[in-house]
Design a protein that fits this description.
Elements: E1 4-8, E2 14-19, H1 20-26, E3 30-38, E4 45-51, E5 62-63, E6 66-68, H2 75-88, E7 99-108, E8 111-121, E9 133-140, H3 141-150, H4 157-170
Parallel strand pairs: 3-8
Antiparallel strand pairs: 1-2, 3-6, 4-5, 4-9, 7-8
């Protein structure tokens, strides 16, 4: 589904709106949020999800929850919405704490965007939206980091970039 999203300048200030497909096609800078969901406070087991086969971008690849911000959404609002849509097929529930880790400018997976990474704890159970996610599962983050070096074609570029950046900063 094509939707309108905010377009930003090099300083991450909103300067207008554009269709998401046009942002991808024309490499227009926009915003996204991603969430590293851990099973508990040990931050060892991270939630991964296999994207639906029907997704336009990166079908059937492994990633972490996240996506584009809607028009007028803050990074936190977008992260919450994406997490609940993808993992619970529902609206936002404010019973969870999202920790803002860092923001990077990236060009991966056809996305020229500012991406903010959040971290949270949620052990599930999850009921993923089948339009978005085939299935989700927890895996030891160190095993994931090993796998992305050996089997990078199975993961989205964004997931690889964020995992490696997270490793540099927090592990």
């Amino acid at each position: 589904m094509d939707e309108m999203i905010d377009v930003v300048d090099e300083n991450d200030n909103v300067i207008g709106q554009e269709l998401k497909s046009n942002c991808h096609k024309n490499k227009i800078l926009h915003r996204g949020a991603n969430i590293f969901v851990f099973k508990d406070k040990s931050f060892k087991e991270i939630l991964l999800q296999k994207r639906s086969k029907s997704k336009r971008s990166n079908p059937s690849k492994i990633c972490t929850p996240g996506g584009h911000l809607g028009v007028g959404e803050s990074y936190l609002e977008g992260a919450k919405r994406e997490f609940f849509e993808e993992q619970f097929n529902s609206k936002v529930n404010d019973n969870f704490e999202f920790e803002d880790l860092f923001k990077i400018k990236k060009f991966t997976d056809d996305d020229y965007e500012y991406m903010t990474l959040f971290r949270m704890i949620c052990e599930g159970p999850f009921t993923p939206d089948p339009e978005e996610v085939e299935f989700s599962y927890f895996e030891d983050i160190n095993e994931v980091l090993t796998k992305i070096d050996e089997e990078s074609e199975n993961y989205t570029q964004t997931t690889i970039l964020l995992l490696k950046e997270y490793q540099k900063r927090y592990m």
